[in-house]
Every structure is written in C-alpha cells, then in structure tokens.
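Following the same procedure, backbone shapes were mapped to integers, as reproduced here:
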Amino acid sequence: MDRRTFVKLMGAASAATTATLLMPGGLGAPGVVKDFFGGNDFKIGVLLPTSDAYPEIGDNLLGGMQAYFGSRSQFSPSFVVEQVPHGYVGVTDRAIKLAQDDRVDMVVAGVSSKVAPQLRDVFEESRTPFVVSNVGASPIPSTSLGRYGLHNSLGLWQSSWATGNWAAKNIGKNSVIITTLADSGYASAYSFHLGMESAGGHVSETYYADLPVEPGEESVLDRIAATKPDFIYAMMSGSAGREILSEYDNWSMPPLLASGFMAERFALPNTGSAAGLLSAATWADALDSDENRSFAQTFRQHAEREPDQFAALGFETAQLIDESAHAVDGRMGNGRTVTDALSSATITGPRGLVTFDKETRSSTAPLYLREVRSKRASWHNVVIGKLPGVSLDDASDAGVMGAVKTGLLNEYLCSS
C-alpha cells in the first residue's frame, strides 16, 4: 500500500460533537438522538463510535443499552454520550470530560482495541470503571486496560480463527482470502491464518479488492479462479461485500465463506447469491433461545427497527452493568468495587452464556456456525452448529495479542 492510498483511506477527522444526556428509552430512527432528563440512580458515560460504512453502529449499541434499562432493570441510569469521530481523534479529551466534568460512575467505550489503552490512564486517575465494547478485531491485554478496564466484544478475531479451523477440517486445506485494506486490520485476517494452520491447512494468497487494477491486469476474481483454492474466505464490509456476492454467481468459483459481519442481514445483497452463505459469529438473529427472542422483541419496541450484533452487544453490556449494580447494592461510586463486580459477572443474554475472566478481564461468549437462509422474503442467519472457543492464552502464544497487520485505527465497519 503506497502512502497516498493509505492517507486517502484514513480520511480527515470530523469535528467534535457535544455531549447529550439521555434516559433509558427508544431512540427512534437511526441517527436521531433524543434528549431525556432524569434517571438518577447512576450515570453511564458512553463513547459512541461513528461509521460511514454502517451508520447505525453507534445508535444500535446505545439503543441496546437503553432497551435493556428501559424494560428489565430496577435501576434507571442516565447516559452521557460523546460521539467519537473517525480515527478516534480527541477520544482522550472526551474521556477526560466524562470522568472529570460529567463525573460519570462508569463508561462504555465503543472504541477499537488499539485505541482502548489510551483510556487507561484517564480512568485510572479518576477511578472510573470502563467497559470497552467493540467488534473484537484483536484481543486487549489486561495490562493495557489497567485496574478499571474490561473488554466485552463481538469476538471477530475468535470467529476468524474458528472459521479457519472448521473449514480446514470440513472443506479443504488450501484457501485464499479476499478482503479490503480496512477490513483486514488488526488480528482478524491473521487469526484466520492461524485457525487454518491449527488444522493442517494454509492460506495461499490474500487479495485486496479495493486496490486499483491497472489496464490489462486481471481482476481479483480472475486471479482467484486461476489459483484454484479449495474455498474462499471473504472479509469485506458494506458495498464491497455486496458487490462480491452479487458477482459470485457469474463465476465458476470454489465455495465461499464469509466473516460474521459480511453475512449480516444489513450487509447482504437482494439476490440469491447470499443463500447458503456460511459464517461464524457470537450472535445470530435466528438464534433459537428465549433470551434472544425476548431481546429482539424488546429492541424492536424501544428502537422501532430490527436488531443487529451491535444492539445485542449493547443490550448485553447493560445486562452486565445491571448485574454488577445489584452485586454492590446500587452503590456505584466505588470504582474498584464496581470493577470487581463486573469482572465476576455471569449472564445469559442474547448471545447465550457470557462470562468474564477475572485475570484477563475479557468476556467469553459462544461461537456459532451460521447459514444464511430466506424466511418471509428476508435473509436470516440460522445457527447450524457451535464452534470451539479460543482463549487469550492461545492468542498470546500465537502472537495474536497486539498484532496489528494494517495501520488503520478504526476497526471493521468503522473504517470509511
């Protein structure tokens, strides 16, 4: 990647936004933030991510939290929201404002795994518990979170590892990856390599669909067809993923597996090419459990739209906070006590059983193998199996911990 391409991908930072005080309740349409006042049991600060590729990401994370507290909890916290622009410019200043000026009792930080350590010193000084809630493109060492930080993620790097391991055992040993510069960041693509290798497979080539094609040069799909892999692993968000899926039926190609976010309903094209698409993720909209059905119904009532993985993550993060608030009898002013309660929390939520490891302060959730199927004229991800989990010890031994394979600060879906 040349310097000009890299700078263009990074983009310019957007202007700072002001904080908004919110009460639990429906957000309405994506992108619309309503002011509510009240809810004085305790105060939650939120560092809200923004994305051009998927604008609903921040609204759904916050909407999931509000839906939970507005329907399930005896506590009624208020939310102080700071929107964070692309590249996370000014994120430390926003964290300082939440901790020192707004004096929140805790913070939910929708920031990337590389940016999260920048918050450690701010919240150490103010003794404010904070939960990093993100896609989980790479693990975060507990030392980078300090005494008050925890990590609750959608487990993208674990999903990538598990997909590679399963595919090498069940489809073939030789694979290629098709991705974009942004989507391949952190440990997500690297973890797929390691998953393949753990089952005796290998990745023979990685193709970047967003690099310019010179006149007379073969297209990415031409080059993949010539490689003759056993299967293709696609890691692409937004329009890039839809374009590949739309074109896939027109080519004589090997089987295609997708990353969990590429296979989400919002990302799929309205064509038959999505049918049967396999992916791995920690949540599925058609997951057959009472907790998931109840979550989906609650979110629809409060937010007036369909839930996604980020809504599930927000709902579950609120559930973990609620659990810790009960453990300390609602006394949320003691940061160390609240952090200890969070690190001991265990819940059964939309994704299933979720626990925190006291040593790593990272959550563990089930990993599902999913298949895209059509139901009532729309796509759904149906769980067809469970995949073995991957521990942080495995990540550390394999060099995944802290592995940043591209120079982009924004994780998957927050990169454009």
Notes: The domain at 3-154+289-364 is CATH 3.40.50.2300 (Rossmann fold). Residues 354 and 365 are 5 Å apart (CA to CA).
